[in-house]
Amino acid sequence: MKQQLLHLITTTKLLTLHQTSSIILIDASNGKNAYDNYLDSHLQGALFVDLNTQLADIKEDVAVGGRHPLPTVEQFSKVLSDLGIIPESHVVVYDDKNGANASARFWWMMKAVGHEKVQVLNGGKSTAEAVGFPLAKGIEKAEKVGLYPVTNWQLSQVSMDEVEKATTNPDAIIIDVRETARYKGHVEPLDLIAGHIPNAVNVPFSSNLDENGLFLSPSLLKEKYETVFQDIPVENQIVHCGSGVTACHTLLAIASAGLDIPKLYVGSWSEWSRNGKEIVTEE
After folding, report:
1. DSSP-assigned states of every residue in 200-253
2. Catalytic sites, residue numbers
3. Looking at residue 24, what is its pLDDT?
4. Which terminus of the chain has fewer Cβ atoms in its 10 Å neighbourhood, N or C?
């Protein structure tokens, strides 16, 4: 029986793999200076992937699909090919934000096209540096490979209309993983209006991590999310964030717990809040 690969990988395991196995390492750090930071310092052998241009197909009107709508599977197939990834590749992805930046989004997208061997580095770049993982500067070159074969997104997603129906369904749950101040509508640093989707519950993605910035153990995550979901079936579980990126951190945590992956609302708050939908704020 084939052993199932864990969704998360430790820095020590990655260091061993780096020395002994053929892996494709991806830096999915995001932010204003992400590429410059990558050129200045990245884990040796890591290829850079850009959230805005490779893991999203950003539209002029954010009201349609939110700030980080998914690319088409054909576009993503080309991204994987450009990174030298084939269906048999063992891919490890990291970022500089404990997997909350874009590495979990890349993991979800790869899982969603059926890729088996993909893992997120638990703790991110800084933990790898702490165990002496070698660093490099400049650009790394990917191997030339054929077009990655994909047909469709295989993990469940929901549209804004489906989310709206779920707001009045007592047998559904909508999880908002943004920090509590944004959920309550006290602050909104990125989108136009503050608040949350009616009947959404707040389970900040940061609560997936321990005090050292590592994911909680699978048993703790299982206990946590079984408590959140109660008896609600997975087909009625929806997870969202601001733009469909950090929601994937929670989907990764849930998968790491050995639970089925809920539906992702990719448009998230950035789409909902721009479409005249009902908005809730709290004191």
Report:
1. EEE--GGGGB-TTSPBPPHHHHHHHHHHHHTT--GGGEEEE-SSSSTHHHHHHH
2. 241
3. 97
4. N
